[in-house]
Design goal:
The protein has about 500 residues and is an alpha/beta fold. The chain contains 19 helices and 15 strands. Helix 2 packs across helix 7.
Amino acid sequence: MVKSLAGGGRRRAGLRAWVVRVGSSIVIWTVVMQLMPILGPASWQPRLPKTWPSAACLDRRDPLRPNSTTMDAAAATLGEDGGAHLSPPALLPRRLYRSNGYLRVTCNGGLNQMRAAICDMVTVARYLNLTLVVPELDKTSFWADPSDFGDIFDVDHFINSLRDEVKIVRTLPQKIKRRGYREPLSMQPISWSSEKYYLRQILPLIRKHKVVHFNRTDARLANNGIPVRLQKLRCRVNYEALRFTPQIEELGNKLVGLLLQRSTSFVVLHLRYEMDMLAFSGCSHGCSERETDELTRMRYAYPWWKEKEIDSEKKRLDGLCPLTPEETALVLKALGSTSDTLIYIASGEIYGGEARMASLRAQFPKIVRKEMLLSEEELRPFRNHSTQMAALDYLVSVASDVFIPTYDGNMAKVVEGHRRYTGFRKTILLDRRKIVELLDLLQDNELTWDEFTESMRELHNDRMGQPTRRNVLLGRPKEEDYFYSNPQECLAVPHRRNFSITKNNIRDTDI
């Protein structure tokens, strides 16, 4: 009897010990999994799982239009008072991985140059299994905008919407600094590099230094030859994670609403005729001698603008200059815009002011700008912040019925791509070289107005933002089509559409 009781006690003690060991193992495993992202360099190479990234990359939403919301991650709930309230979005599951180190980036350029760079840097961080510090923005360029990332983009949404792909932190953790960290290795990655360059050249540096700082981020990832999963992540960051702040989104929605109160449709004209653009490009067609001298002095005042001596007329004939407001008026009229067309001007201050705009406004009196639609009080928080003002123009440009850029700068390209992503909205891509040729023939009376109009419409029938493939030029990445103007890997090709320019207006017809 005593032996039987002793045996039973030993079995119960053994069972308790087994339960304790199992429970302890579960707790230890959970802790280890939570700590893996900060335990230091991994011994394995980064690779792309077959299921990555999520299908959410191909989500479509109609930005800024009535009856749609830009807060698609939030769920509306009905409060006790009967009013609708927005509940916070459910967090995505965090991706658990062993971080190879920290990546700091300082994005250079204007809003859209920095926007594309942020998308690239998130993609690099994901591919190399890094922890990304919230990007720093350029404050030293021509615009001298003091805005931080959080002044333009919703930081919480940026971090949380990507937590299933990459860990993003607001600042470097104190533990990194306590390890003796002072200044990171600071460098410029090679432009237009493939993911293999980052794997072979950059990852060993990060493992060695723990923190690497990219001090220039524009065009540091190739347009083509990148794995589709990485291309789709670039799109996910651009169209889902980079949401403007609620203040910017709210004012952008208001601008679109005010435009739709005036007309059922509107055109956005991205008129690149600011002083800095003309000085940088060396384009002075239509300018007085005094204005030309002023633009030249400005070009020499900025040492990082490398090209100083520029043949303005040659550049214009090559299609490398933005159209003047006078030229733009003729182009719009030839393409079918009428005097009652509502046109929103998306740009900075036009060089020459209202005097330079007179001919354009005479043809199209319903021209408006954000300064004409919003009160001074509404715009005051955004004054002296060029990137935030550009963000308002960006939102209106994406939502417009037709978008027409007069120069193919970063905003024109990124908006073109965004409009492709939201369903191939009409974007008239002006062939400036041919346009200049036609304009000169018209000016010299070698073309009648009817002949000019017919030539303009025929020239642009296949330049309306239809589905197309990017132009790839091996060994010449700067000359090939920009990824963000046509992110073809992320686009669901719609049923065939016939985009045409009619006598009265610009339209698209299903066929």
